[in-house]
Amino acid sequence: MAELECSIGLEIHVELKTASKIFCSCKNEFGALPNTNVCPICLGLPGTLPVLNSRVCDFAVKMGHALGCRINNVSRMERKNYFYPDLPKAYQISQSEIPICGNGSLDIIVDGEVKRVGIDRIHIEEDAGKLIHDDGFDGTLCDYNRCGVPLIEIVTDPDLHSSREAYVFLETVRSILRYIDISDCKMQEGSIRCDVNVSVHEKGTPLGERCELKNVNSFSGAVRGIEYEIKRQTDIIASGGLVERETRRWDDKKGVSTIMRSKEELQDYRFFPEPDLGAVVISSERVEELRSEIPELPNRKMIRYVKEHGMNCDEAFVIADSPDKAALYDDCISLGRCRPRSVANRILGEVTKFMNDTGRSIADTPLTAQALCELCEAAENGIISSTGAKRVFAELVSSGGNTADIIERLGLAQNSDEEFLSDIADKVITDNEKSVRDYQNGKSNALGYLVGQSMKLSKGKADPAKLRSILENKLKKEN
Ligand code: ADP
Ligand code: ZN
Ligand code: MG
User: Fold this and answer.
1) How far is CA 154 from the centre of its chain?
2) Structural domain of residue 401, as residue ranges?
3) What is the pLDDT of residues 105-118, one digit of tens each?
């Protein structure tokens, strides 16, 4: 059998963090008491009219810019009809024919290589309610708070060819969403959910028939689902069978996918234009205004850190993934005072540890880029030890201030540090046997030479008087 290749396309649903829902003024909030954030519009009562929240379009256009999409100044809302108890209207208002954003692409970095993934479209739609199966209750409970929560759906081309690429793609999308600040990205609250399409085919032949996996609730679940599906389809092909177009449910606990709908049962959503809403119009001026709000994105930063600053991919990811760390890093570099490597090490070390331990961001501490650079400089020049640097850092994030003052106040400068001076004296004594012998044979001016050597070794930072007395004591003991 020829070598098999898999193709993966993702449909990613992202809840947007607008204040209110997409077609009514109900609060868009997670965790409220069931059925308290509802009104006749999002409950789909007859005779009500939806009104589109323009923030939703702004957010979608921003994501469109981030993914290099074409933005459609005029797009259209459509009804997607299906009957299910989480949808009180029995249709979802979505976009099909003309989405707000068309073709784009995203560059991701997979194991050091830049890979371009096509984006088919981004459209806006409303979320459905949540069905709750409670152990103590023999039936299904409906919570409609989530009805009408605004979503964007990002649809990729089938350009991903391994579970690893899919994982990195999802991570990159999440990172971008954080940068442009349009979603909470709380996986555990379902802010990002995805459907995964997988097919397997022989290299050099057209793509195979695909299966769509539903109920994928985490990025790691997506990886497991894809691996399972590749294996299942490969086995079918290897035994001479044909993979059927299916919708399958992924059970992450059991680690298996089971059939939900076969090809014959595929749903016909009977899309048609939403008669209660006009066209979605966004002016070119507004589109450009939104473009100017897009910062340098994390995937671009990563490429820059790897190519220009010599970081490895993992390091670049840890810094670029966090807008907070990346801002601190970039600010330090633009001050141009210390080596990029020293700054990177502080951020990968102390800064990351501080953020993980406290759950706080650097932006709400008094630490400034200036102070961090001074800390790096002091450490680079051997003015403070690595333990000293950690103490200065702790001081800077708790009380702020000036690095030099803190070093002084806490007595961390190595020039008055006994241990530091003693180490230097030891080294000079070992390296200068002849002068040591001269001194011990009564040539007292040999001491001056040893002090000079020690000062040189400390790069001029040691206190000469203190050094002299430490050397004297050591030489007496040796005698
Ligand atoms: P439909 O219109 O039937 O929903 P789309 O063409 O919009 O299908 O594709 C839906 C998703 O399935 C996209 O993410 C796309 O990349 C993916 N997809 C399409 N064909 C394949 C295939 N042969 N293998 C894997 N994924 C595919
Ligand atoms: Zn409402
Ligand atoms: Mg489609």
Assistant:
1) 17
2) 322-406
3) 999 999 889 999 99
